[in-house]
């Protein structure tokens, strides 16, 4: 046989049907080129020649020839790694040279491929960084645009307020006084009130109402002024009078006196008596819950047209006007005025004044009513500003809190879910709010839910097939599409909304839900922006199943000093949750043919401490082969020991009872097993180090009698110290926590 060349060698390998784009196929191809062919082909050629010679010179006394034995001996003699007659003939040497060239070419290709892979990974990392940076820029630009829009809106409101005041005053020279009052009110809200410390605006609103009532009695003929809010819905509405101001004026009686002589023969008169300034006081009236509260039901009194018809009221003779109602039950002579108070462009209450207790006989006139209208405009503006300032302070406070939790290394999903629900609930009150995470394609776990009344439920499950509620419909729609899902009103506003939380791979990891209010009202733009901002902030904690398992088990592993029981409990819960199975078994190898059962649940619950190979043959196949295995009603996921480079060995298994897993559930189960591997490594390290640390401290005390006591500690993921062991006398403030 002639020497084989590279072209012929390629021809010999052409029928190997190897997929050269596959890494395993490439390795097989290289093994054939570099190891098998340089040895096997020359030996086969020699074997063929020997067989032909034996057939030509066969004789009766010729010893028998065993071709298989001869081939085996030849392969051993010419083995490329230390054979006795390596490359003795030109044929084998030629193949070896070709193989060496092919090996060099292969290594070059692998190096190029690794370099391309590294560049691709770097490009992907750079792309992700750019995406994150772009998202941050977009977020910052959006925030800046909103800030500018808010500033422009405030300026527009300010100008509109000034115009409204001037219009209400109709050229009255008291316009400057009202604008000064407006500036004083704004200064109070912006500089004297810390809305971060306010639970609501009731205290601030009371102060603003008192300021307004005081201004009315100070600059009009009124002896009494009051503010009332419109409370209730439709026909059940009432006017609740909650704030009042009183003015008591002293009456100066002039006496006729004879002129006096100044001693120089000239007479003079005494200067007239000057009345002291009126005594003005403000007060809060009994609350609505009190039996003595001042309320006007619809149809009572004469004030309702101020609200219903948005017109100012001036009554010049209260005693003889039909329909007037006095809280003390006595009709008295006087004048009465009322103007409508608006908030956000809608009637909210009234600002009223009268002269029933006036001692001077002065009466309210139309210019006083115009002044009250201007004061009502300023008061409504101040109440709106207080509400928006409180909402902004709440948004900022809750955003900072959720950011802190998101950045905290020890934050668990349920903790941030609670903070998210509390934050959204403070902005959109009177609505149901929920945070859910997908367990499987059809099941979502509601980590934290607060209904419209504030009642809380946790860890409920919601099935897409059986739950037909609006909440389920919107949340599953958002989870499957990765887009916001909402029920809108005719104007396009969001009545109820579900917002997805996505990771860097754009996989939906959680969904926030805000229900419609009892009296349908669209969410404000600020509320929508807050919900979507919080969805971005919470994404480092609300993760996909595999990443979430790694985070949760990692936190638990570093929250203890070597106890692995919490890890098995959490891993079993996660595996069952994300697989939809009806039972979980976690076993660790205990010899070659037995596993120690460290956790069982559901259909796998048993009183046994171990299980043998005969009890669970497929389970042991998964361990032996270190690979994912399934049977009719169970799935087995191996648990690996932390391997050295290039080697993996199964040390246990997670068995999940139930039908075969789909791709997403399998990925989640393998993610739980991988997270458990990492967590067990940390727990085992801490357990061993605790033993060593205790012995080291005991030895140190023996060698240094002056040491009375000591302790050995670890740190958790947040940097808190966990005492693992103590020796000697107790140390104040140091103790070993119970497992």
Automatic annotation (TrEMBL):
<feature type="region of interest" description="Disordered">
    <location>
        <begin position="253"/>
        <end position="286"/>
    </location>
</feature>
<feature type="compositionally biased region" description="Acidic residues">
    <location>
        <begin position="253"/>
        <end position="265"/>
    </location>
</feature>
<feature type="region of interest" description="Disordered">
    <location>
        <begin position="104"/>
        <end position="139"/>
    </location>
</feature>
<protein>
    <recommendedName>
        <fullName>GAF domain-containing protein</fullName>
    </recommendedName>
</protein>
